[in-house]
Amino acid sequence: MMLRSKHGQVQVRIFNNEKGTTTNVRLNDYLTPEQIRALSDKPDMLWQFCQRLATEYTEKGEKIAIYVDCKVSVNGRPLRTFIDPNVNMATAKWDYFFHNEWILPSKFEE
After folding, report:
1. Residue 88, class by beta-carbon neighbours within 10 Å (0-12 exposed, 13-18 middle, 19+ buried)?
2. What is the C-alpha to C-alpha distance for residues 34 and 7, in angstroms, rounded to an integer?
3. Shortest CA distance to 74 belongs to which of 106, 45, 99?
4. pLDDT score, position 5
5. What is the model's pLDDT at position 103?
6. pLDDT at residue 110, as a whole number
7. Which of 2, 25, 67, 77 has the smallest C-beta neighbourhood within 10 Å, fewest atoms?
8. CA neighbor of 6 nearest in space, from 96, 98, 79, 99
9. Rounded Cα gap, residues 62 and 56, in angstroms
10. Could you list the pLDDT tens digit for every one of the 110 residues in the chain?
C-alpha cells in the first residue's frame, strides 16, 4: 500500500567560473525519463549526478560550479524547495548516516 506520493521538478545549472557564463543542463542528454523523474526526489541520486557532471567538466579542464533548483511535492501539497539553490553541488559532500545541510527541511503545513 502506498502511504505517500512524492513528485518534483529539477533544473541543474553549470556556472563556468572562468567565463562567467551559466548553462542549463539538458537532463535528457544524460538520463532516461525514469531517472529524471527519480532525480527530483532522491537527494543521493541528485548528488551522484552532480558529481558525475563535475568530473566530466574537470576532465575537460573547466572550473565550474553546479547549482540545482529542485522542488518537491508530497501528498499533493504545493511544491517546496528541497535542495538549497545556493550550494555548489560540485563540492557538496554526501553523508550517508547524518543530515546533509544542503537538503532543506520540509515545512509542510497540515
Report:
1. middle
2. 12
3. 106
4. 84
5. 92
6. 46
7. 2
8. 79
9. 9
10. 567 788 899 999 999 999 999 999 999 999 999 999 999 889 999 999 999 999 999 999 999 999 999 999 988 889 999 999 999 999 999 998 899 999 998 765 54
User: Which grid cell sits at 33?
Assistant: 525519463
Q: Which residues contact 109 (CB under 8 A, 6 or more apart)?
A: none
The rounded distance, in Å, linking the Cα atoms of 73 and 65 is 26
CA 36, CA 40: separation in Å to the nearest integer?
Answer: 7
SS percent in the chain: helix, strand, coil, step 5: 25, 30, 45
Q: How far apart are CA 84 and CA 101, in angstroms?
A: 8
Q: Are strands 64-74 and 6-16 parallel, antiparallel or unpaired?
A: antiparallel
Tracing cell 562567467 back to the chain, one arrives at 20
Report the alpha-carbon distance of residue 2 to residue 57 in Å, rounded. Answer: 39
Would the pTM count as exceeding 0.85? yes
